[in-house]
């Protein structure tokens, strides 16, 4: 057995300006090309201020963290310092064996059989929410996608139909997750408002949980919350209110935040790449026909061009850019040692920009996923938009189908025109932030 390494990963500098304008992932990819797939950085702000953070980049790093050596890494120690305790302990920041038990309770709700149930719901919400687009000269695809994805998540996960109650929930979750820019002397006011929003959400969701507990089995809607309320552990005990609240919080957040970004970018990229967009339109016309023809599970599987566009949008504009982990036991990677207690960022979006993995990685090119190229298959764990391994995102199929349903409806009903010479402002971080959204003109389909 090779003795453990005592070498520390190389230290790099990440200038402040690369966090803006979509530069972060290409910059980190460049560092990986220059220094190798592991390096360290000491941030001046954020949850790990003045603490050495290890960055891991590329397919082998993804495979190491997500599969072969995952026992060295803690989701709790990674995510909880980032998101705080506002959302509680859900699947996102649980570690085994607790995570294993709780995920098993939710797995049935994300099977192919349940996708058949969710697809009509997705298409109904998409049709309702896009109906007004032609009444405005332009729309913000990001805010519109957020309304759609949250409505779908609220209905599928907790049984809420589109309406004032769902709007109330969405507004408060958005305010909880997206802090406004503020002066330092106003920070205490912002914190107090966040606590107030958290308490409002908690009261509302706990009342919902209590009502579900009291309902007869025949009165339970067929959503994920109903499944969790009925679930029992090995000793026959139900989940506590605290556990249910955390799961509802995480499911509602994860069920719409990343899909919002993915769906908005998908529509924008298809609109800005007319040639590929036309190929998708032809595929939709051949397989489906007019906008009134609904998608089915069978037709979803018969749209390889659109499916590849979804994957390419997720590669090029990864909604989650950095996966945080805490190191619970020391490990060696690529000849360097990392000690327990070290915070780690798995830079999945940077791995998507490596030219050694993806040809012309900064270019929108969905054909890279189609035969004969299939670039992602040449390097296992090359594409990690939704993570990978045993803890791959539980909602990966949900998000993929919802993005396809959104694009299939919009491409068959409307024409989107990006504003010329207007860049989409981006801020890098754990997740991608678009402070001014993605605004486009909307025209009737010729």
Account of the 3D structure:
The protein is built from 17 helices and ten strands. It has a domain at 69-320 and 385-444: Cytochrome P450 (Cytochrome p450), CATH 1.10.630. Helix content is 48%, strand content 9%. The protein starts with 23 loop residues before the first helix and ends with a strand. A five-stranded mixed sheet has the order 1-2-8-5-3, with helices on both faces. The protein has a three-stranded antiparallel sheet with strand order 4-10-9. The protein is globular. With 446 residues, it is α+β, with helices and mostly antiparallel strands.
What is the share of helical residues?
Answer: 40-55%
- The proportion of strand residues reads 5-15%
Give me the strand/helix succession: HEEHEHHHEHHHHHHHHHEEEEHHHEE
CATH fold call of the domain at 69-320 and 385-444: Cytochrome p450
Principal-axes shape call: globular
CATH superfamily of the domain at 69-320 and 385-444: Cytochrome P450
Structural class, by secondary structure, is: alpha+beta
Radius of gyration, CA atoms, in whole angstroms: 22 Å
Quaternary class: single chain
Specify the biggest β-sheet.
5 strands, mixed
The total count of strands amounts to 10
Counting H and I runs of at least 4 residues, what is the number of helices?
17
- Distance between the amino and carboxyl termini: 67 Å
